[in-house]
Write a structure and sequence with these properties.
Beta-Lactamase, Phosphatase 2c, domain 1, Heat Shock Protein 90, six-stranded antiparallel sheet, five-stranded antiparallel sheet, GAF, hydrolase
Length: 556
C-alpha cells in the first residue's frame, strides 16, 4: 500500500511525457495544422478530463483572438474576442498560464457564450501559445468532468503542450511563407517573361527607332512599343504606370496591348490616346492608378513626327547640339474620360537630321554622383553619347545610371526616333508671310550653292522655291500659318527640296499653269517650277500636315 501512491504518480508522469512527446511529434510533422489542433484538443481534454476545450490564435491584422478549433458540447469555432477580452485575452497579454477556480467570480470571465448556448462554465484552465515573446494565442480547457478543479499538474502539462503547439504555428507560418514566396517568384518570372515578349524585337542598326527597357525589379511598370504601319510610317509609344507590382504590370500589359491594336488603324496619336484613356478609365481609376504616355507617328520620307503627350516626361529633340523639349498637353491616362479629348493638342516635329528622345521618369529621378540627374543631367548624358550608334547610345546612357550587375532605383526606359536621311543643307520652319521670303531666298541660295549648284542653277532653284512658297501663302493659307522647308543632297547627287505646310489639302485637279504672258509675283505657277526642276510631285503628307511638295534636281 505504501508504494501505490508513488507508483501512480510515476505512471501519471510517464503518461504526461508520452502525451507531450506524441503531440510534439505530430505538431512538428503535420501538414494539416487545423486537423492536428482538432485532434490534439480532443486528446488533451480526455487526458485532463475536461468537458470542453478550445484553441485561439491572434489575428495579425486586427489583433483579435479567433477560435480555430474546439471540442465539447458547444461549437465556438470562428468566435472572435477583442484583445485582452476574457480569461483567454488576459492569458495572452500576461503570457502566463492560469487556473480560474470560480469562473463566475473572475472579473475577466465573459458569460456571453454561456448566455447564448446554455452551457455553464465553472472553472477554467488556460495556457498561452508563445515563442520567444511572440504571443500567438492560447489553449483553454473548461470544467473538470468529475466536478472537481484543475490542479497545478494540469497547468504544467497544458503549458508544455501550448509551447509545442506554438512552435507548430510558427513552423506552419514559415512553411506557408516559403511556399508563397516560391509561388510569387514563379509568378514574377512568368509575368516578366510576358512583359519581355511584349517589347518590340531588336531593330536593325539602320532602322530609325530604337528603345531600351531596364527594369528595377522582376516586373516593370514601364513600356515602349514600335509598330511598322502598312503605308511605310512607324507608330511608337512609351509609357509609365503608377505604382509597382502585379497591378502595375497588368495595367502596363493592357495599355501596351491597346496601343498595338489601335495604332494599326488610328493614325492620329491624339485620338489614339483618347481611346486608350476611355478604356483605362473603366478599370485603372478604380484603384487610383494611372498611366503617363506619349505616342507618335514617324514619317521616314519627310523625317517628321506627329506627337501626343499625356502627362509624360517632356521628350527632347536634339538638333545640331541644341535641345528642344515638348511638354505634355493633357494629364495622364486613366484618371477621367474628359481629360483626354479626341481633339487633344498634337505637336508636329520636323527632325531635320536630328533625334527625338523619349524617356520615363526613371531617368530624370535617377541618382548620378549622389544627386538627382534631373532634366539637365539627361541632356548632358544624351549629348555625351550622341556620336555613338543607336543601340550603343541607349546602352551607354542606361549603363551610366545602372552599371552592369546593379539594379536601378526605378525602371529605366529610353526611346529614340532618328532622322536617318542625309543631313539637310537647310532646314527651316517659318511664318507663311511675304515678309519672311526675302530672308528665305538668301538662305536657299546659300544652301544650294553649298550643295554644288552653279550660279545659274542656284538662281533658278531659288525662284522655284520662292514661287512655291508664294502659292502656299496666297492660295493655301490665305492668312497666317507655318511652312517647313528642307533642302538636302542625297547620295546620288540629287538635290531634294521639301515643302510641308499645314493648310487644307490642295485639290490636285485644280492646279493649272497660268499663261506665260501673265507673269507676276506668285503667278509663274507650276509651269516655271516644273521647267526648272527635274521632278515635282505632291506626296502623301505626314500625319498632322496639310500638303507635302517634293521637288528634285540633279546637280551637274
Amino acid at each position: 500500500m505504501s508504494d501505490s501512491a508513488p507508483r501512480r504518480r510515476s505512471d501519471s508522469y510517464h503518461r504526461q511525457l508520452d502525451l507531450i512527446a506524441e503531440m510534439s511529434h505530430e505538431f512538428a510533422t503535420t501538414r494539416d495544422l487545423h486537423g492536428t489542433f482538432q485532434r490534439g484538443l480532443k486528446r488533451v481534454a480526455d487526458f485532463i478530463e475536461a468537458e470542453a476545450a478550445s484553441l485561439f490564435l491572434v489575428d495579425d491584422s486586427s489583433g483579435e483572438l479567433v477560435c480555430q478549433a474546439c471540442v465539447g458540447p458547444v461549437d465556438i469555432i470562428g468566435l472572435r474576442l477583442a484583445p485582452g477580452q476574457g480569461v483567454v485575452g488576459r492569458v495572452v497579454e500576461q503570457n502566463v498560464a492560469t487556473i480560474v477556480k470560480d469562473a463566475r467570480a473572475d472579473p475577466h470571465f465573459g458569460a456571453l457564450v454561456d448566455a447564448k448556448t446554455g452551457f455553464v462554465t465553472r472553472s477554467i484552465l488556460c495556457a498561452p501559445l508563445s515563442v520567444r515573446g511572440q504571443r500567438l494565442g492560447a489553449i483553454e480547457l473548461i470544467n473538470k468532468t468529475d466536478g472537481g478543479l484543475f490542479h497545478p499538474g494540469d497547468r504544467q502539462l497544458l503549458r508544455a503542450l501550448g509551447a509545442s503547439a506554438a512552435l507548430a504555428v510558427v513552423n506552419a507560418r514559415l512553411n506557408k511563407a516559403m511556399v508563397d514566396q516560391e509561388r510569387m517568384a514563379r509568378e514574377l518570372e512568368l509575368a516578366a517573361g510576358i512583359q519581355r515578349a511584349m517589347l518590340p524585337p531588336e531593330m536593325p542598326d539602320d532602322f530609325p527607332i530604337h528603345g531600351i527597357n531596364h527594369p528595377a525589379h522582376e516586373v516593370s511598370g514601364d513600356f515602349f512599343d514600335v509598330l511598322k504601319l502598312a503605308d511605310g510610317r512607324i507608330a511608337f509609344a512609351i509609357g509609365d504606370v503608377s505604382g509597382k507590382g502585379f497591378n502595375a504590370s497588368l495595367l502596363m500589359t493592357k495599355t501596351c496591348s491597346l496601343f498595338r491594336c489601335l495604332a494599326k488603324s488610328e493614325r492620329r496619336p491624339g485620338r489614339l490616346l483618347s481611346v486608350i484613356n476611355a478604356e483605362l478609365c473603366e478599370t485603372a481609376s478604380a484603384g487610383g492608378m494611372f498611366v503617363t504616355m506619349a505616342a507618335g507617328v514617324f514619317d521616314p520620307v519627310s523625317g517628321s513626327v506627329l506627337l501626343a503627350n499625356a502627362g509624360h516626361e517632356p521628350p527632347l529633340l536634339l538638333q545640331d547640339g541644341i535641345f528642344t523639349s515638348f511638354a505634355a498637353a493633357v494629364p495622364p491616362l486613366g484618371i477621367a474620360v474628359d481629360m483626354v479629348p479626341p481633339d487633344m493638342t498634337e505637336t508636329w516635329i520636323g527632325l531635320a537630321g536630328g533625334c527625338l528622345y523619349l524617356f520615363t521618369d526613371g531617368l530624370t529621378e535617377a541618382r548620378c554622383q549622389d544627386a538627382l540627374l534631373g532634366a539637365e543631367g539627361v541632356r548632358r548624358l544624351l549629348s555625351e553619347a550622341a556620336g555613338l550608334p543607336p543601340r550603343e547610345r541607349l546602352a551607354a546612357v542606361v549603363d551610366r545610371l545602372a552599371p552592369p550587375g546593379s539594379s536601378p532605383r526605378d525602371d529605366l526606359t529610353l526611346l529614340m526616333v532618328e532622322d536617318r536621311r542625309e543631313r539637310p543643307c537647310l532646314a527651316v520652319r517659318f511664318e507663311a508671310t511675304p515678309e519672311c521670303l526675302c530672308d528665305l531666298r538668301h538662305r536657299v541660295a546659300a544652301a544650294v550653292r553649298s550643295a554644288g549648284c552653279g550660279p545659274e542653277a542656284a538662281a533658278d532653284i531659288v525662284l522655284a522655291v520662292d514661287e512655291a512658297c508664294q502659292n502656299i501663302i496666297r492660295h493655301g493659307y490665305g492668312g497666317k500659318g507655318e511652312v517647313v522647308l528642307e533642302i538636302r543632297k542625297n547620295a546620288a547627287g540629287v538635290l531634294e527640296v521639301q515643302l510641308i505646310d499645314f493648310a487644307p489639302a490642295v485639290d490636285l485637279a485644280k492646279i493649272k499653269s497660268r499663261c506665260l504672258d501673265d507673269i507676276r509675283p506668285g503667278g509663274l505657277g507650276t509651269h516655271f517650277i516644273r521647267a526648272v526642276m527635274d521632278n515635282v510631285a505632291f506626296l502623301p503628307p505626314p500625319v498632322g500636315a496639310g500638303n507635302f511638295l517634293k521637288m528634285t534636281k540633279a546637280i551637274r
